[in-house]
Amino acid sequence: MKRSSPTRQRLAALALFGIPLLTYPLLALPEGRTGGVPNVFLYLFGVWGVLIALAAWVAETPSK
Amino acid sequence: MTSSWFVAFLATAYLGVLFAIARYGDARADAGKSVITANVYALSLAVYCTSWTFFGSVGRATSGGLSFLTIYLGPTLMILAVSVIVKMIRISKSLRITSIADFVASRYGKSQLLAGLVTVIAVVGVVPYIALQLKAISASLDVLFPMSAEASEPWWRDSTFAIAAVLAVFTILFGTRHLDATERHEGMVAAIAFDSVVKLAAFVMVGLFVTFGLFDGFPDLFQRAAANPDVAGLLELDSTRAGTWASLILVSGLAILFLPRQFQIMVVENVDEGHLRRAVWLFPLYLLLINLFVLPVAIGGLLHFGGREVNPDTFVLTLPLSQGAEGLAMLTFLGGLSAATGMVIVETIALSTMVCNDLVMPWLLRSQWHNLAEKKDLSHILLGIRRGAIALVLLLGYVYFRAAGEAYALVGIGLISFAAVAQFAPAIFGGMYWKAGTRRGAVSGLLAGFLVWLYTLLLPSFAKSGWISRDFMDAGLFGWPWLKAQALFGLGGMDDITHCLFWSLFANLGLFVGVSLLSRPNAVEASQAERFVDIFRLDPRAADSRLWRGKASVEALVGLLERFLGPGRAHQQLAAYAARHRVADWRKLSADAQFVHFAETQLAGAIGSASARVMVGSVVEEETLGLDEVLDILDEASQVRAYSRELERKSKELEAATAELRQANDRLLELDRLKDDFISTVTHELRTPLTSIRALSEMLHDDPKLELADRTRFLGIIVTEAERLTRLINQILDLAKLESGQAEWTTGEVDIAEVVRESVDSLEQLFRDKQVAISTELPEEGSAVVLADRDRLVQVMINLLSNAVKFVPGETGRVEVTVKADGGQVRVEVADNGPGLSPGESELIFEKFRQGGNTLTDKPQGTGLGLPISRQIVEYFGGRLWVESRPGQGATFVFTVPLPTNT
Fold first, then answer.
1. N or C: which end of chain A has fewer CB within 10 A?
2. Tell me, what's the pLDDT at A2?
3. Does B38 touch chain A (CB under 8 A)?
4. Can you give the pLDDT at residue B853?
C-alpha cells in the first residue's frame, strides 16, 4: 500500500458513501415490516453487509 | 446449579489457555516465526468489543432499540479511512512511538507537558472503563450464584479481585517482556485474538439459542415483539434522535483510533501494513456478526421475563439459565470473561506505558536524577516502574469498581470514555495533516476540551450517582444558569453525550486552531511537524542529519543506551545499526548526527520521546538551531525535492527527444537504403534494353551475310528497345523532377471530360488493334472543370488507359471510363475486366518499378514508373489515386481532383 494508492482512495470513497446511507435523513425512510422483520433492521444490516462486501472486494483485489 | 468450584476451575482453565497461547506466540516470535497473520491482526482489533458490548449492548437495546448499533457503525466507517491509519503506523514505526501520549508529544516538539496531559486524560477517562470490566465479571458471577448474595463477605467479591490479580500477572508477564515498548507483544496479541473468537462464538450461540430455540426464527420473534406494546417501540427508530445517532457514530469512529488499547493494537502491535487489507473488512464483519443477535436477545429477554426484575445487561446469561441450558450459560460466562480480560490486558499495557514514560520518568529524571545517575543499568528499574504501573492501573480500576458499585458513574462510563479520548482528535489529525499546528495550540485545545468534558459529562455522572451535589447541573455553577452543566449557555434539548461532544470539540478545535495561528513553533516543533506531515515523502534520514548540529561522543551515547536498555539489548541494537552502515565494529562508529538520532530514537522506544530528548541533551553538546535556521533547512529540503522532481521531468523530456531523434535517424537510414535500391533498380532497368540493343547491333555488325528479313526484324527490335529506353529515361527524369519539386506546371482551367475524350481518341488505334471495347460516360460539358495542368492530366489518363488495355484479354476485353462531378471533387474511374489485383498488389503497383503480373515469368509490359508518376501528379493537384480490385473481378483505377471552391 503506497501513498495515494487507488485501493486506499476507493476505500475512503466507500466510507464517504456509507456515511449518508447510515445516518438520518435516509435512515428514516425504511418503515414497516417484511415477513415480520422490521425493514429498518433489514436496511441497517443490509447496507452494513454490502459496505463490508465492497470493502473486501476493493481491499483484497491486488492493485497495480 | 453449577458448583462454584466448577466455575472457578473453568475460569482458571480459560486463563491458563490464554497463558499457553501467549507463551506459544512469544516463543514463535523469539524463533523468528511470527504467529501474527492478517487474520490474527484483524481479530485482535476486536478488543474493541469489551464486556460493555457483550453484556451492555443488550441492555442498551432494551431501552434504545437499534441505537446501540452506532457504536459499531462508526468504527466500520472510520477503518475505511485506511490512509489515516497507515500514516499513523508509518510515523510511529519511524520514530519508535509507543503510545498515543508519545504520539501527540512527539509531534509537538517532544513536549513533556503534552505527554503528561494526554496521559492524565487517558487515565481519568479510561480507568473507570477498566472498572466496568471487573464489574461485568462480578455481575456475571452474581447471576450464576444468586444464593450467596446475602452472605456478608461473599467469596466471589474476592474472586473479582483474584481475577484482577491474575490479569495483572498476565499483563506483567506478557506485556513487559522487553523494556523497549516498540518490541511487539506477539504472544499477547495472539491471546487477544483468541479472546475475540471466544466472545464472538459465545454471543452467536446465545443469539441462535434465543432466536431459534426460544422463538421460531426472526419473523416469529419480531412478530411477537410487535404484538407487545411495551416492546414494539424498540422495532422502530426514533427519528427525533437523529442528532444523537450522528454524534454517536462520530464519537465511536474516533474511539477506534484514539482509545489507548486500540492505538496499541492497531498501530504499535502492527507487524505489516499489508494486514490492514484484511482488517478493513474482517473487523467490520466481526462487528456485524456480534451485533446481529443483540436486538433479538434483548427482545427475547423482555418478552420472556415480562415484568420481572431482571437486569437486561445479564440477559445473555439469564435466558439460557432460565431454560436450564447450563452448558450454554457457562460458555456465555467464558465469553464475557474473555471480553473483559482482553480489554483489561491491552488497556493496562497501554496505560502503564504512558504512566511510566510520561508521568513517572519525567518526575524521576528531575528529582532523583543524582541518585539514579550512579547506577550503571537502569533498565531493571524501568521495568519495575512499568510493572508497578500495571499493578497500579489495575488496582485503581478495582478500587473504582468497589467504590462505585451500581452507580451511574460506572454504568454509563463507556460513552463517557469515548468522549474523553475524542479530545485527542484535533491535536492528532491536525498534527498529521497541518504543519502550522503548534504545541501551545495543542495544549490549549486539549486542556479546554478536557475541562469541558469534565464539567459537562464526568462530574454530572458523579452527581447522578449522588457523590456530589447536583447544584451545578440544576442551577448552574455559582448559581449562573448559563453554566448549567448539561445545558451550557442555554443549549438544551440534546442528550448529554451530544451536548458534551459539541461544546468540548468546539472549544478544543477552536483553541487548537486559534492559538496555533497566533503562536510560533520552536525549532523542534517545526522539524517534527515536517516529519509527521510529510512522512510519506521524506527520506527520514536526510532531514535528521541536517537538523542536528553539535558535538557528541560515542561513549556517552552508548553509555546512555546501556543504562536504559540494558547492556545486552543496547549492544544488539548498536551492532544492527553498525551493520546497516557497513561498519564492522560499533565501537568504531562516529558520533555524527545520524548516530545521535539513532540513539535518541532507541531511547524514545524505552522511555518516550520527551524524556529521550532530555536524556540525549544531557550528554551531548547540541548547538541550538534557531527556528529560522530550521525552517531554512526544511525549505531547502523541500526545494531539493522540487529540484529533483524538475530534474526528473527534464530527463524524461530528454529521453523523449532522444527517442524522436532515433526515429528520425532510422527514417533517414531507410530513405538512404531506398535510394540505393532505386539506383540499382534503375541501372538494372536501363541495362536490359541496352543489352538487347547491343547484342543485336553486334550481330548485325559481325555478320554482314545476314538475311534481309532477319536484319529488318533485328533493326525493328533495336528501334523498339531504343524507344523503350528513351521512354524510361524520360520517365525517370520526369519522376526525379516531380519528386524534387522542380517539375514545370502550367495550371489553368481544364475540363476533365475533354481530357478523357482526347486521351481515348489518341489511343483509339491501340484499342482497335487489340479489339478491346471502350465506353465512356461523361458529364455535360463545363461541369467538371478543375484547376490543373492539362498535359499532365492527359498523361495520367493515357497511363491508366494504356495499363487497362495491356491487362484485359483481347477480343472480350472491355474498358469503361466514368467521370462524375460531385461532393466538391471530380471523380474519374477507369474500370477493366482484366485479371484483377490481390489486396497486396493493390498497394504494390504504386511503388516504383513494380508491375502487375508475375514479373519473373512474364515479359515486362511497361516501365513500372507510370503509376507512381500518375499518383504524384494527382496528389500535386490535391487529389488521390487508388485502385479498387479483387482477383478475377477486374480492376477499377480511381482518381479524384478537387473542384475549385469558388465555383
1. C
2. 43
3. no
4. 54
Number of Cβ atoms within 10 Å of the Cβ of B273: 15
B659-673: b (≥16 Cβ within 10 Å) or e:
eeeeeeeeeeeeeee
B227 interface with A at CB cutoff 8 Å = no
Mention every residue, 6+ apart, whose C-beta is less than 8 A from residue B741: none
What integer pLDDT is reported at residue B414 of this predicted model?
85
Q: Are B255 and B262 in contact (CB under 8 A)?
A: yes
Q: E strands of B483-623, at which residues?
A: 550-551, 621-622
Identify all chain A residues contacting B80, using CB atoms and an 8 Å cutoff.
11-12, 14-15, 18, 51, 55
The per-residue pLDDT for B363 is 85
* CB neighbour list of residue B166: distance below 8 Å, 6 or more residues apart: B15
CA A22, CA A46: separation in Å to the nearest integer?
11
DSSP for residue A64: -
pLDDT of residue B547: 65
Q: How many CB atoms lie within 10 A of CB B748?
A: 10
Identify the pLDDT of residue B717: 87
Q: How far is A57 from chain B (nearest CA, A)?
A: 9
C-alpha pair distances (Å), B413 with each of B125, B131, B607: 8, 9, 30
CB B332 within 8 A of CB B206: yes
DSSP bridge pairs for B828: B819, B895
Pairing of strands B773-777, B814-822: parallel
How many Å apart are CA B132 and CA B50, to the nearest integer?
Answer: 10
Are B226 and A14 inside 8 Å of each other by CB? Answer: no
Q: Is B73 on the interface with A (CB under 8 A)?
A: yes
Q: Measuring CA to CA, which residue among B288, B314, B285 is closest to residue B206? A: B314
CB contact under 8 A, A48 and B288: yes
Cβ-based contacts of A24 with chain B (< 8 Å): 239, 242, 245-246
Low-confidence ranges of chain B (pLDDT < 70): 1-2, 146-158, 178-183, 307, 368-376, 409-411, 538-549, 623-626, 633-634, 636-638, 641, 849-863, 902-903
DSSP assignment of B801-823 equals: HHHHHHHSPTTT-EEEEEEEEET
Let me know how many helices (H) and strands (E) chain B has, helices first: 41, 9
B82 vs A: CB within 8 A: yes
- Kindly report the nearest CA distance between residue B305 and chain A, in angstroms: 22
Set of chain A residues whose Cβ sits within 8 Å of the Cβ of B288? 45, 48-49, 52
Candidates B281, B287, B290: best to mutate against A (most CBs of A within 10 A) is B281
Q: Do A38 and B219 touch (CB under 8 A)?
A: no
Q: How many degrees, rounded to 5, is the angle at CA B141 between CA B137 and CA B146?
A: 150
Amino acid at B745: W
- ∠ Cα B878 B881 B886 (to 5°): 160
Q: Is B229 exposed, middle or buried (0-12, 13-18, 19+ CB in 10 A)?
A: exposed
CB contact under 8 A, B73 and A48: yes
**pLDDT tens digits for A34-61?**
888 888 899 999 999 999 999 999 998 8
Q: Which of B69, B80, B83 sits opposite A14 (nearest CB)?
A: B80
Residue B277 touches partner A, C-beta closer than 8 Å: yes
Per-residue model confidence (pLDDT) at position B742:
75
pTM comes to 0.71
At B180 the pLDDT is 57
**Partners of B884 in the β-ladder:** B892
Q: What is the pLDDT of residue B584?
A: 78
Cell numbers for B329, please give them: 450459560
CA neighbor of B559 nearest in space, from B516, B503, B599, B502:
B599
CB B296 within 8 A of CB B210: yes
Cα separation, B383 vs B389, whole angstroms:
10
